[in-house]
Specification:
Layout: E1 2-3, E2 17-21, H1 25-35, E3 40-44, H2 47-57, E4 61-64, H3 73-82, E5 91-95, H4 100-109, E6 113-116, H5 121-146, H6 156-173, E7 177-184, H7 187-194, H8 196-213, E8 220-225, E9 228-234, H9 238-255, E10 270-277, H10 289-305, E11 311-315
Parallel strand pairs: 2-3, 2-4, 4-5, 5-6, 10-11
Antiparallel strand pairs: 1-11, 7-9, 7-10, 8-9
């Protein structure tokens, strides 16, 4: 299907985030009061809830109780570190236990620190600040490897690795995944008329607009190559994927970059192909990344053939 692209309002920005995990309300309250003045605080009372919040909210730090009913803190930490989407989030155990073997086990699972209960607010804030700073430094180093030098969004190397990880998650968690490929309409004509420096500036602005249209930390944009960009969007249905395409198109249109040779309009626009990967049947293998990319590329071609400045959406493997 193809669809013209209406106006969609921009997304709101988020503050630095902290996830507190404890089954005792009094402990949650103490930590909340220690951090709520300058952190965006999320709270979980079970391991399952903690994993879901970490995946969806991408906190900068997790403060994790060890002893909880059901899934304990050690298992939560193990799962966080086994998940590519959460493995770089630092975990501090906040526990009343003082057994050295217990502390050793936590560190072996990937925790960065231990804080004893009852907490001292000044100490817990200082140690949390240290680990958030270290995480941000690590994030900067990773960006040097995985960020496109021209546009500042992720590069093709990151896209290939991330897409493979997300398709494996479709198998494990039974979630949908969408890949959006978008292309700046008649970009060669833009370069021919305005020069390559103006073309580079155009790509930087388009990349920033696309990134701004993402509403969740788990939504990822990368430069696919040349004037093409790709967005990997997990856990989204058809209407959500199409709404994202609408937001991207409107964000680029709002830039109002003149393009007199476009053939579509007076300003720079984009065409989009949106391919969805549905959860495979039990026991089935994950869809190969190449199959999802090829499906999105075919849909992008369909959007261009239908007149450009629009989106085409479909399901990978549906024919």
């Amino acid at each position: 299907m193809t669809a013209r692209l209406p106006h969609v309002p921009p997304a709101a920005a988020a503050r630095p985030k902290l996830l507190i995990v404890d089954d005792q309300p009094v402990n949650l309250q103490a930590l909340y009061h220690a951090f709520s003045s300058d952190h965006q605080v999320f709270m979980a009372t079970s391991g399952e809830q903690a994993l879901a919040l970490a995946r969806d909210r991408q906190p900068d730090l997790v403060l994790l109780d060890v002893v909880m009913p059901g899934m304990d803190g050690h298992e939560v930490c193990r799962r966080l570190k086994a998940d590519p989407a959460t493995q770089d989030i630092p975990v501090i155990f906040v526990t009343a236990q003082d057994d050295p073997e217990d502390e050793t086990r936590g560190l072996e699972l990937g925790a960065v620190d231990f804080i004893a209960k009852p907490i001292n607010p000044a100490i817990v804030r200082a140690r949390a600040r240290t680990h958030v700073t270290l995480k941000r430094q690590g994030d900067l180093l990773r960006q040097m490897v995985f960020v496109d030098g021209l546009t500042g969004v992720h590069n093709r190397r990151f896209l290939d690795e991330h897409l493979a990880d997300e398709l494996q998650r479709c198998v494990r968690e039974g979630r949908d995944l969408a890949l959006v490929l978008l292309d700046v309409d008649f970009f060669k004509r833009f370069n021919d008329r305005h020069g390559h420096q103006a073309g580079d500036d155009c790509l930087r602005q388009v990349a920033a607009a696309v990134k701004g249209a993402m509403r969740r930390p788990t939504d990822v944009v990368a430069r696919y190559g040349g004037e093409e960009f790709a967005c990997v969007v997990p856990d989204v249905d058809e209407s959500g994927a199409l709404a994202l395409a609408f937001r991207i198109s409107e964000a680029v249109r709002t830039l109002a970059i003149p393009h007199g040779d476009s053939g579509v309009g007076d300003h720079v626009s984009v065409s989009l192909g949106v391919a969805r990967a549905l959860p495979p049947a039990p026991g089935a293998a994950a869809l190969p990344p190449s199959a999802l990319i090829e499906a999105a590329d075919r849909l992008l071609y369909r959007a261009k053939a239908a007149g450009r400045a629009q989106a085409a959406i479909g399901v990978a493997g549906a024919g």
